[in-house]
Amino acid sequence: MEQYKVRRFEKIEQLREVWEEIYRQNPSLQPCQSYAFCETFVNDFRFSRQRVFLRPVFYALLREEEVRMILPLWRKNASNYYLIPDFLITPYRDFIWRADCAAGEFGIAIAMVKQALGGAALHLRRINERSALCGWLIQNCQPQNPKPCVRIEFTNGYAEWLSGLAGSTRQNLRTAQNRLQRDGHSVQLCLQSGYAPSQSEWEEIIRVHRKRYLLRDGERIGPITNWIRRHHEPIEKMLRFSPDNFLARLYIDGKLAAFFNGLLSADRKTISVFRLSIEDDFGFYSPGMLLVARSIEQLSRQGETQVLDLCYGGQPYKYRMGGVETLDYDFLC
């Protein structure tokens, strides 16, 4: 019988080599499971009131000295542990597991880690149904709080994706393009990966993003929160400086009309889009729809990326653009 054991690690750096190996070899893992993302989060996590008292701890499940999976956890208190990167607005939390893991190994890992934690509760939140971990959890725990995530797949190219849209959506895209031509506007699409925007470029992106949230939600950000988000928010750092970042911008007459940015998966086939915002001054021309459609067209020609994962939220525009829904679930073990 195969022998399993769990080993505890206090520092994320102790797991870097095997973590990166598992992540590269398992296409089911998402950018939020990359070592670089979690390391950035762990190093900057305290710059938030809800995260200030959390402590990271890492458990590895070993089978005959081979690391089968890694459980990166937050210790909130002696009785409650959460999965990193919980307490950050991210989708698709998961264990870091080898692609050939059997379903039963998730159960072994959870049971042995819970025993090592003295029976403390494991809060596993926002586990997506496409994950093998979620499959095991649904069979053995009660799924709670389903939340939609939406992804746009264009595996067979732009033309097939476009033809699959509703006729009204295709007409809206034509209308937006006709309005721009009629009014004499120039349009430019800029797609970049592994690109670190300059300070002025980043300020422009943040301005559009914050303005959109202010108009939509009435959210106002004070100077201290603004400074923390600029310099110590993990998502900000990854979206701006990660070699796996992706930035798409649509300009109308040289002005930023819409953008999305996110992170590429290890195999480069999926872009997880963390932010998509439009400049409302250009709302008449549907810049968000044009940005998504033109990005898919160009990405299809390049032939590597096949999915725009718009992540959490079931906003109607995602479905109009051909999005397919999956669900995140919360579990209490």
What would CATH call the class of the largest domain?
Alpha Beta
Mean pLDDT over the residues: 91
By CATH, the architecture of the largest domain is named: 3-Layer(aba) Sandwich
- Give me the number of helical elements: 11
Fold and architecture overview:
- The structure is a single chain.
- 37% of the residues lie in helices and 30% in strands.
- It has 333 residues and is α+β, with helices and mostly antiparallel strands.
- The protein has 2 domains: 4-141, 3-Layer(aba) Sandwich (Aminopeptidase), CATH 3.40.630; 151-324, Aminopeptidase (3-Layer(aba) Sandwich).
- The chain is elongated.
- The relative contact order is 0.16.
Short characterization:
This protein is of the alpha+beta class and 333 residues long. It has 11 helices and 13 strands. A hairpin with a 2-residue loop joins strand 3 and strand 4.
Question: What's the helix and strand layout?
Answer:
Elements: E1 4-9, H1 16-25, H2 35-44, E2 55-63, E3 66-77, E4 80-83, E5 96-97, H3 103-116, E6 121-128, H4 132-140, E7 144-153, H5 158-163, H6 167-182, E8 187-193, H7 199-217, H8 223-232, H9 234-241, E9 245-252, E10 255-264, E11 270-278, H10 287-302, E12 307-312, H11 316-320, E13 324-332
Parallel strand pairs: 4-6, 11-12
Antiparallel strand pairs: 1-2, 2-3, 3-4, 3-5, 6-13, 7-12, 7-13, 8-9, 9-10, 10-11
Please describe the structure with a list of short key phrases separated by commas or semicolons:
11 helices; 13-stranded mixed β-sheet; alpha+beta; Aminopeptidase; single chain; 13 strands; 2 domains; 30% strand; 333 residues
